[in-house]
Design goal:
alpha/beta; Rossmann fold; three-stranded parallel β-sheet; 4 helices; 15% strand; flat
Length: 104
């Protein structure tokens, strides 16, 4: 929702990108439909567990963005997988994504 508000010139207007981990659509896209009349242009990075009970709602959230980057991990509803190597791989991708969109 913050990314959508940023596009409307709110206090979040300087938002360069967003990282969403275990996020899910919670109904505010219907309650604040004016914010989501068009896909949110803010670059977004989403981390979703393949076995997450909320996976479908997470994928609804992804669809609210114009050009999302999505990474799946093999576990349930958690921001990063428990296996260190898998977690480091995702963290490295997040660092690269944020660096790409916030570089001066």
């Amino acid at each position: 929702m913050v990314a959508a508000e940023a596009q409307q010139g709110s206090v979040f207007k300087e938002l360069k990108c967003t990282v969403v981990m275990c996020g899910s659509a919670s109904g505010w896209q219907d309650q604040l439909s004016e914010l989501f009349a068009a896909p949110v242009p803010t670059p977004s990075f989403h981390v979703i567990g393949e076995k997450d009970d909320y996976r479908e709602k997470s994928e609804v959230l992804v669809k609210l963005y114009a050009n999302p980057t999505v990474v799946y991990h093999p576990e349930q509803h958690r921001p990063l997988p428990g296996k260190k190597a898998q977690a480091v791989e995702i963290v490295d991708k997040i660092i690269a994504f944020v660096g790409q969109h916030t570089a001066v």
